[in-house]
Design brief:
Blueprint: H1 3-10, H2 22-43, E1 48-57, E2 72-81, H3 89-99
Antiparallel strand pairs: 1-2
Organism: Salmonella enterica I
GO molecular function, one term: efflux transmembrane transporter activity
Protein name: Type I secretion protein
C-alpha cells in the first residue's frame, strides 16, 4: 500500500451508530417507559371482563332449608368492571406525561 493510499485511508471515519451512545439508549428507555405508562393509564379507563369459575363441595347433602342438595356445586360468573367516576384521577394520570 502506498503512502498516499495510507493517508487517504487514515482520514476515513466509521459511520456513527447512535444506538450505541449511552445517552441515546437512556432516552429510548425513558420513551418506552412513558409509552407503557400512557398505555396503562388508558387501559384503566376501559372495562375489564373476567370469568370466575367456582366449585364447592359439601360434606353433608341435607340442609334444613332444602330437602336435598348436590354435594358438589359448580358455578361460573362473568364479571364486568368499569370505573364510573374517580374524581378525574384517571384522566389526570393519562394526561400527566404530556404536562412534563
Amino acid at each position: 500500500m502506498t503512502s498516499r493510499a495510507k493517508l487517504a485511508r487514515s482520514c476515513e471515519t466509521a459511520t456513527p451508530d447512535d444506538r450505541l451512545v449511552p445517552a441515546v439508549l437512556a432516552a429510548w428507555a425513558q420513551a418506552n417507559v412513558a409509552r407503557a405508562n400512557l398505555d396503562y393509564a388508558s387501559a384503566q379507563m376501559t372495562p375489564t371482563i373476567s370469568l370466575e369459575p367456582s366449585v364447592q363441595h359439601y360434606l353433608n347433602d341435607k340442609y334444613p332449608s332444602h330437602e336435598v342438595l348436590d354435594k358438589t356445586q359448580y358455578s361460573t360468573w362473568v364479571k364486568v368492571e368499569m370505573p364510573l367516576y374517580q374524581g378525574g384521577g384517571l384522566t389526570a394520570r393519562r394526561n400527566a406525561p404530556a404536562m412534563r
